Amino acid sequence: MKTPRPPAPRAAAAAPPWPGPRPPAPAVAEARDTSLVLRLGTAQTLAWASSYYLPAMLAQPMARELGLATGWVYGAFSLALVVSALVGPRAGHWIDRHGGRPVLATSSLLFALALAVLALAPNAALLLLGWALLGLAMGSGLYEAAFAALVYLKGPQARSAITGITLIAGFASTVGWPLSAALEQTLGWRAAVGGWAALHLLLGLPLNLSLPRGHAAGVADVAAQAAAPPRPLEPTAAPEPAAEGGRLMLALLAFVFAATWFISTAIAVHLPVLLMASGAPLAAAVAAGALVGPAQVGGRVLEFLGLRRQHPLRTARWAAAAHPLGALALLLLGPAAAPAFALLHGAGNGILTIAKGTLPLALFGPAGYGRRQGWLMLPARLAQAAAPLAFGLALQAWGVHSLWLCIGLAGAALAALAWIRPPPGG
Question: What is the predicted pLDDT for the residue at 26?
């Protein structure tokens, strides 16, 4: 009698296919994130240095050669800010649909074109056209677009990357002002502007083209996304939350961004004159003003190292309180408080720059982020365009007491932030 053979071992059941890309090892993922932040941060440094920080060094030589008042060039810059505000929502909508790579790469070409027009402009009309084109580039190529690109790639986990690129681009003025000044003094303002245009083609465009193509909003959520029923890819309107509470939060947040950007731009343009109006001599005013940049970077480092464990709403409240505290110190103590004012204003402004990207993400999620961000920042860009003239007139009329205007706006922004409540579990 034959001994029955034991049944052959059954083949192990094949593992179900991973419904999407397998997550990379933690070390590989961290290296990719670091590379992404370095590339995007470098491109943002170039974009800010060659647009927002351009007039400070080149407005006077531009105006002098073309026979214009310097204020005319600053007015053209305000036009660029208005154009960028109007472009922002559409650029964000495109990023929501197609990712940041094509939009940011296109912005590099727009920067190069706009700067080339400026460099070759023989008269005021073409100079105005160049600034308008620069507004198109700014609306599709500065922080809001970069933040939307990161959210498209990383979803709710984009906060650290947003902080990282603001840390790098926080040195845009440190790089941009000396480089623009050196080129202008040696080769003239046209060569300086043309040099920035060339950098966008040789450096900015390759960096933006190197961004990932695919949508990877958190590989840990891929399975859940695959199992979930299909849903519309984009919101049907700019303020996506349909509930009245959601719309109110959007309105409050838009006001906060507009108020804080007005303050930031007003102080950036008029800080030395403001400090001298408080009684500080020129050398002391310049020395105190030089503290703002390092304080901004310091605030962002603080956010990256520790404050990111807090809900962005809490850090935004703390940051919004920094400017009025410094302003009150300057009003009460006089020029002795100028360094404290510069440090508090700079640190708060640095953290608020991050909050402009992370707070909408924390409150409303990644869906439709780019378009929503464009609408949220539209009032802020318009306030930014109005700030130099409006605060300049206040400074002429009231001197250092024009700070009460900023204190009032900051107080209203704090009240708006106090009214906003984080979502459950936030």
Answer: 55
Could you tell me what percent of the chain has a pLDDT over 70?
A: 83
What are the tens digits of pLDDT across the range 240-264? 444 455 788 888 999 999 999 999 8
Q: How far apart are CA 313 and CA 156, in angstroms?
A: 15
| pLDDT tens-place string over residues 172-216 | 877 887 888 889 889 999 999 999 999 999 999 999 999 887 664
Structurally, what CATH architecture does the domain formed by 242-419 represent? Up-down Bundle (1.20)
Categorise residue 312: left if φ over 0, alpha if ψ from -120 to 50, beta otherwise: alpha
Name the H helices within 170-213: 172-187, 189-199, 205-209
Burial class (CB in 10 A: 0-12, 13-18, 19+), 75: middle
In the chain, where the domains are located? 32-215, 242-419
- Please identify which residue in the block is written with the tokens 């620069």: 134
Beta-carbon count within 10 A of 390 CB: 16
Domains 32-215 and 242-419 share a fold: yes
- Pick the closest to residue 32 from 204, 172, 216, 206 (CA basis): 216
Of 145, 150, 161, 123, the C-alpha closest to 48 is 145
Of the given ranges (12-21, 40-49, 121-130, 282-291), which has the lowest mean pLDDT?
A: 12-21
H helices, E strands: number in the chain: 18, 0
**Closest residue by Cα to residue 95 from 149, 36, 161, 143:** 149
- pLDDT band at residue 307 using 50, 70 and 90 as cut-offs: low
* Cα dihedral across residues 252, 258, 264, 270: positive or negative: negative
CA distances from 64 to 49, 311, 422 (A): 22, 49, 51
How far apart are the C-alpha atoms of 139 and 259, rounded to whole Å? 19
Residue at 295: amino acid letter: A
The architecture CATH gives domain 32-215: Up-down Bundle (1.20)
